[in-house]
Amino acid sequence: MTQKASTLCVQAGWKPTNGEPRILPIYQSTTFKYDTTEQMADLFDLKASGYFYTRLQNPTNDKVAEKIAALEGGVAAMLTSSGQAANFYAIFNICQAGDHFVSAASIYGGTYNLFGVTMKKLGIEVTFVDADASEEEIQKAFRPNTKALFGETIANPVLSVLDIEKFARIAHKNGVPLIIDNTFPTPINCRPFEFGCDIVTHSTTKYMDGHAMTVGGCIVDSGNFDWEKYHDKFPGLTEPDESYHGLAYTKSFGKGAYITKATVQLMRDLGSIQAPQNAFLLNIGLETLHLRVPRHCENAQKVAEYLEKRPEVAWVNYSGLKSSPYYELAQKQFRDGQSCGVVTFGLKGGRDVAIKFMDSLKLCCIATHVADARTCVLHPASHTHRQLSDEQLLAAGIQPDLIRFSVGIEDADDIIADIEQALSSIKQ
User: Got the DSSP string for 304-373?
Assistant: First the structure.
């Protein structure tokens, strides 16, 4: 029986049997005991499944990953220590020195730097493309050594909406998987696998945790991409791994090949594991995800509509507004057209006015974080991207006056009242 997201949020993952704890236990142990040398050896050779060291796998983490996989409709998932680690592993799992991948240019700044600077030092090149460009234009970025196409369902912070079906067509035409960061809509509002995506990543730090308590990430595999069809393009998955006595992941693990390799090879060597305590807290957040996300979206819609009517506001960007260029796409891809709880806007007068407005807020706080229960606000030009000139900001798709407003789950009237008093203060 196919269960709905609201049921999966509460029930998926940990399924206690007779006499077991009703709540997912925290397996706060680095190691796991076995009776014989052979039992342990079989685990190290991947001949048997089980736990022996938390850097690779932990039962608490695995049950939470299983829940996220169920929510996304995937076959397997792996938790990581952060969303950054998830995106790094997702690409590095199929790319090595000398390889290339293509990414939408409008993505989170940290991911942009990871792809364009850090991974370049590892010998992996990226070409950034305008996600709104035509398929023919994006196609020009592909090379014979291209191994993946990447994008964000809703780009942070510019809030552009990715046409997943278009990106999937381009990726599959070139024999590569489409990897999408689905952090902002979450699987409550969008399941990219249903539109042709192959691999999904998340910063679980955001809506999934929902309370700004834990940093974490997750990778989910749909199990749909046929790695063997492009055997020579993905030797890391299809050819023998000498560190496991010549085992080939696609032959040994089938649809589980991608996540298995990420776990037993990348996590083994790089170690960005999520702490079991954090996974436990993440699971608590997931249990109310289906309740919180609609409230975030409902409040964000009210805030966006209010801002659109204010004379002090130069522009508002939210795909729930009919004035948005992404309105129709959002109606198609998102549940009931709801995207996320983040609204961006600019004020007449530019950067100085934006700073005065933010400093005048009382209920809504200035914070680097986004997408938790409390309303918070950020001005990228003054904070996360303050090292960039106005010209560089525009090149990155960020307007110098852009205010990122993450609408929480407080009463919408109270949030709007705080905005109103702050807008009044900039006139003084």
Answer: HHHHHH-TTEEEEE-TTSTTSTTHHHHHHHSGGG---SEEEEEETT-HHHHHHHHHH-SSSEE-S--SSS
Could you read off the pLDDT of 224-247 as tens digits, one per residue?
Answer: 999 999 999 999 999 999 988 889
Cα distance between residue 286 and residue 121, in whole Å: 36
Report d(CA 186, CA 58) in Å as an integer: 24
Angstrom distance (rounded) from CA 172 to CA 199: 13
Looking at 176-222, list the stretches that DSSP marks H as alpha helix, in order from N- to C-terminal side. 186-189
pLDDT in tens, 335-360: 999 999 999 999 998 888 888 999 99
63: enclosing H helix or E strand: helix 59-72
Helix (H) or strand (E) holding 128: strand 125-129
Q: Examine the pLDDT at 428 and tell me if it is beyond 70.
A: no
Nearest to 138 by CA among 101, 183, 94: 101
Residue 428 CA to residue 383 CA, distance in Å, equals 24
Can you give the pLDDT at residue 99?
A: 98
**CA-closest candidate to residue 24, choices 279, 228, 351, 238:** 279
Please name the amino acid found at residue 97: A
Dist CA 126 CA 396 (whole Å): 15
pLDDT surpassing 70 at residue 385: no
Distances in Å between the alpha carbon of 109 and those of 104, 306, 386? 12, 28, 12
Sign of CA dihedral 87, 93, 97, 102: negative
Please give the full DSSP string across 369-420, using - where no structure is assigned: --SSSS-EEE-TTTTTTTTS-HHHHHHTT--TT-EEEE--SS-HHHHHHHHH
